[in-house]
Amino acid sequence: xxxxxxxxxxxxxxxxxxxxxxxxxxxxxxxxxxxxxxxxxxxxxxxxxxxxxxxxxxxxxxxxxxxxxxxxxxxxxxxxxxxxxxxxxxxxxxxxxxxxxxxxxxxxxxxxxxxxxxxxxxxxxxxxxxxxxxxxxxxxxxxxxxxxxxxxxxxxxxxxxxxxxxxxxxxxxxxxxxxxxxxxxxxxxxxxxxxxxxxxxxxxxxxxxxxxxxxxxxxxxxxxxxxxxxxxxxxxxxxxxxxxxxxxxxxxxxxxxxxxxxxxxxxxxxxxxxxxxxxxxxxxxxxxxxxxxxxxxxxxxxxxxxxxxxxxxxxxxxxxxxxxxxxxxxxxxxxxxxxxxxxxxxxxxxxxxxxxxxxxxxxxxxxx
Length: 368
Known about the structure:
Blueprint: H1 2-17, E1 26-30, E2 36-39, E3 42-45, E4 55-60, E5 69-74, E6 78-82, E7 85-90, E8 93-97, H2 98-105, E9 110-115, E10 124-130, H3 135-169, H4 171-177, H5 180-183, H6 192-196, H7 201-224, H8 230-233, H9 240-272, H10 278-305, H11 311-337, H12 344-367
Antiparallel strand pairs: 1-10, 2-3, 4-9, 5-8, 5-10, 6-7, 6-9
């Protein structure tokens, strides 16, 4: 009879605790610094570089946390144990009052264990929440984000400086790259020299600047979107130096993608017999990225310095990328169709190989 009463009590408490998700809470503490793993018959501090870790532990003292809520959040399935007993399973956000756990397990100290296929910092979040703001907690928020504010400001100064240098090196080419009117023209001036030198050193500088700008744009977005976006977890920083390093790393990845796209377009243009359009294709692609992401980056920068941190706003800016690439496919079809004598079927096959497949890969990576 007692096990039945215990199970009924557990179910009632779980149902009651799910209502706390609708309330407004303030973060009291992040428990990641208290994570431990069981190794060699003892508990040792959690370290992400120790290889594959499937279970972490941390302790709670209910007497010190009266009225507070334990929140566990992850985009991957997990199982919760309390004092070695199975408590529940989840695959998103789970909130439970610490007082409720004490009523169930009747212990002065609760050992919480969380099991996952692989524990990743950032992928699993464990925090203590309070229904009223606490001065010590709120005072830490500006300190926590001050380094990222410095990164955003310094990053923008770097982007502006690099842009000035690149524009001064070749003002005519820069004016063509940043020409909004020409971007939508179905026919442009026959400047074969411009398109034939698409791999020149000055164009390389524009590729580097484009990569830095998109990397900067994504770094800010990754900071504020939910943990469900796995790609963002690899670019979370805790210091100014780490943020700069991750920006350089992300920009390097984007630059490698740009070079791969250039090689892909040239190779497929030769394969399809469209050698005359490869330079036009790449030039207009870079032009689109510079103009659109330049505008979006400025919007994001001014939004951030005005203390904007709305999660949905950053999600929209991330999803704009896919719509931008879809619109680009239609635009480049119009531009290329005016320059070639082949059938539309050949052009459609070429666009599928150079644009549609990369688009699907981008959507899979960014929105998974």
